[in-house]
Amino acid sequence: MAIHDAYARLTPYELLFPEPGFPDQRFPAVADEATERGVDIGNPAAFVMLGAVQGIMADLREEDTDGQAAHDHGGVLYFAYQMWRTGGVVVLAHQKTVRGLLAGHGDGLGLRGKSLWEKQLGGRAGYLQLPQHLVWIEEARTTAPESVDGLFWHGDHRGALHLALVAGMRSDRPGYLFAPVPPQPLGSLPGWASGPAREGGRDFETSLPGSDLDQLLGIRTPAEVFKLAALLLGRLAREDPAGHLPIADGHQGGIATPTPAPDAAQPGVTADEPPAPSDASPTTSPPSPTQSPPPTTLPWCTL
């Protein structure tokens, strides 16, 4: 299956909302309520309990949505709100960048001090998109591996990094797998980037068929999610300390009002425990390698 990093693809941010202008119409009420009630908008548990957020979740919820799927809608909504609030953009990590960082070439640790990580990444949010079909999430033999699309991230004002892995973005079915991992101190990222992340095996090693030929990467542990995020965010903080990387295709500014992408899949989120898909994960064949994924309509840049 061909590895794709020619352009940024349609994101879970876009798939969450029924129309492009939905965030601009509904998110200001979230900010107003949080200010009025003195709620810490960076706390996911407090965020999801806001009345305005509950209203958005009710509008996004389909009739047959179960409780776990609704919970995951709240998780995606948290990251989407942080991107909207901070003007975060999609950052596409090229295959060369990912492989180089994992090989220890330019390890992204130019920010050595704990306070520097908090300064450069605190108050920012975004979506780190990986090359399509390069990284796979795998766990039990009874579940099908899923291609990892990317990582939502947000550095809150208290110095914590919030992360969620997104996998299973496919054109032949709606929804995707959303796997949040426990928050980590921003100052701990250098340790995650440099230390081992898997016991009894090499980090990111995979047994997928054809993995040797295509040099595919696998994620089996939460520590590997932290390590991958630390390496990529370290590079991002070093190369883009002010959050002003050049935006591709003439896009300007934040992500407020995207335009519809061609042939977008229907909104939806499926549940999972990090970092692997649930037992109900589809086992159908992956999409054709010749099928080009739809492009994102959001501002994006490359790493």
Report on this model:
It contains 10 helices and 10 strands. It has helices at residues 12-16, 22-37, 44-48, 51-60, 67-86, 95-102, 114-121, 189-194, 211-214, 222-239; strands spanning 90-92, 125-129, 135-137, 146-155, 160-167, 177-185, 217-219, 272-273, 276-277, 300-302. The strands form 2 sheets. Strands 1, 2, 3, 4, 5, 6, 7 and 10 form an 8-stranded mixed beta sheet that branches. A two-stranded antiparallel sheet has the order 8-9. A hairpin with an 8-residue loop joins strand 3 (135-137) and strand 4 (146-155).
Question: Quick recap of the structure?
Answer:
The chain is an alpha/beta fold.
Bulk shape: globular
The tally of beta strands, per DSSP, is 10
Q: Strand portion, in percent?
A: 15-25%
What's the overall average pLDDT, rounded? 78
- Please, how many helices? 10
Number of domains: 1
Descriptive tags:
8-stranded mixed beta sheet; globular; 16% strand; alpha/beta; two-stranded antiparallel sheet; 10 helices
